[in-house]
Amino acid sequence: MKKLVSIIVPLIAVGLLFLITMCGNHSSAEENTPLPPKQEEIAVRVVAAEMQTLSEPVTASGLVSSATEARLSFKTGGVIDKLLLEEGAQVKKGQLLARLNLTEINAGVTQAREGVAKAERDLKRAQNLYKDSVATLEQVQNATTALNLAKEQLSIVQFNQAYSEIRAPISGVILMKLMNEGEVAGPGTPVYVMHAGAGDWVVRAGVTDKDFVRLRNGQRAQITFDAYPGQTFSGTLSQIPQSADPATGLYPVEFSFNPGGKRFSYGMFATVRLEGAQGSSYVSVPVDAIVEGNGLNAFVFVADGDKAKKIPVRIAFLRNDKAMLTSGLKAGDKVTTEGSAYLTADARIKIIN
Length: 353
Prior knowledge:
A hairpin with a 2-residue loop joins strand 14 (about 220-225) and strand 15. The strands form 5 sheets. Strands 1, 3, 18, 19, 20, 21, 22 and 24 form an 8-stranded mixed β-sheet that branches. About 25% of the residues lie in helices and about 40% in strands. By secondary structure, the chain is an alpha+beta fold. Among the domains are: about 45-55 and about 280-350, conserved putative lor/sdh protein from methanococcus maripaludis s2 fold (Beta Barrel); about 60-70 and about 200-275, Efflux pump adaptor protein, beta barrel domain (Elongation Factor Tu (Ef-tu), domain 3); about 105-165, Helix hairpin bin (Helix Hairpins, Orthogonal Bundle), CATH 1.10.287.470. It has helices at about 1-30, 105-130, 135-160, 210; strands at about 40-45, 45-50, 50-55, 55-65, 70-75, 80-85, 90, 95-100, 165, 170-175, 185, 190-195, 200-205, 220-225, 230-240, 250-255, 270-275, 280-285, 290-295, 295-305, 305-320, 320-325, 335, 345-350. The protein is elongated and about 125 Å long. Helix 2 packs antiparallel against helix 3 (about 135-160).
């Protein structure tokens, strides 16, 4: 037993000495470890976000057209025999412009006339037989009905014969010739486009349903044309449709404008901009506060004490030097303007304004 104690006591003493040494070394290591450098402050200027009620502008693209535009076509289909005028020609109301090859149509008229003649003979024969008590009253009535039907058929083909030519419905100018002689024109297929003449130019543009509900007749618009860069023409919303174009899903609205003595032509490209009739509330910040923009999505830095918080925002539109936001900020938030390019998330800042 004495021998065991004499062994354990020295071991405990050695262990205590080792622990004391390690603790001393650990304290020395902590004292010698350098502190991380303090993050440098970035000087910034801030501006408070504001709440504004504005009308989002409506922008649409369209083409120059005519308010008195007429798209002329044949009522019946057939082979085009003659096209008498070219684009740009002056025409008078009632003037013959085009006609179909009447071979098939005239044959139809002749056939219908022969049908009427036969029905008249059949009715006369039935009436004579009825007088001799050979035919019945029903047979006479059937022959009378057959004659009436034949006469109606003759009226139809004579009507189609009359409308197998195109005449000018108004006096004006031929804008476009859409088909050529020898082509087969279907019923209602436009062959010519004409209008009453200079001075009735309009812009027809398609707008989405979102923009459609914010438009009112008589609204003022600014119209620009690729043909006249740098020039703006005053226009007025003159016509709003009741339904969308099924082919495009857009609403074809019409804007009248003042040509201002400039030369315009059918089909010229135009861009229309006007203010919506209904206002909405937006948070307004300077454009300089916007960073990392990607379409309508972007970020801003907001001052939070001595740090900059990176906040995602959604842009509705730009107006002058302001960005109108639909989400991300509230009125009163202090956004950085100068110095934003040097900031990262949670960077230390110093407000200098």
